[in-house]
Amino acid sequence: MMSIFKNSGTRKNTKISFRTDDETLDQLKAICRIENRTISSLIESILTEYVLIHENNSLAEQEKRLSPRKKCSIPAVILADKNNKKSYFNCLIKSLSANSAQLVLKKIPDEENFYSNFFILFKLPKNDHPLLVSSQLIRSKCLENECMIVAKINCDSDADSEMLQKYLLKIEFKDNNDKK
Predict the structure, then answer these.
(1) Domain of life of the organism in this record (predicted)?
(2) The pTM is what?
(3) Strand 85-96 vs strand 70-82: parallel, antiparallel, or unpaired?
(4) Residue 44 backbone dihedrals phi, psi, to 5 degrees
(5) Running DSSP on this structure, what letter comes out for residue 5?
(6) In the CATH scheme, what is the code of domain 67-179?
(7) How do residues 34-45 score in pLDDT, each as one tens digit?
(8) Residue 135, C-beta contacts closer than 8 angstroms, at least 6 positions apart
(9) Fewer CB under 10 Å: which end of the chain, C or N?
(10) How many angstroms separate the CA atoms of 155 and 98, rounded?
């Protein structure tokens, strides 16, 4: 996450608990393994981000993209090839659209510039078919121990493109119903 989620030195003395289904718990555990953090830390950062968004007049209202990215939390792998040397990076897709993705990954050691072209391998929730999309770097920003990458993505097959569109429409439909 961003630096705003760093521990500000205040003591955490309030506990909360909640119930969730097994699938959500499994996904949280997978994200925690990728990000090398505890479930408690992950949930706290998600809640903090949610509160900050609502304090700052919902980012959704400020969206100006032709194809807005939808928030998500999908574990993924970046596959990059530079000078015939393949590199793999675990990451988390934080938002996704039909033509772009925002990814968060642990800071890449000894890399001043991230790869300009790479592939992203991921599986959409409740779908067994993995997607492999070619990507072009739009921008990246590294802070302390993680990097945020925004990439233009391209589904290489019609089936993958259709699967992504259905997923995005499902999220949009759910978001619109939640607002009612």
Answers:
(1) Bacteria
(2) 0.59
(3) antiparallel
(4) -60, -45
(5) G
(6) 2.40.10.220
(7) 878 888 888 887
(8) 101, 117, 118, 119, 120, 151, 152, 153, 154
(9) C
(10) 8
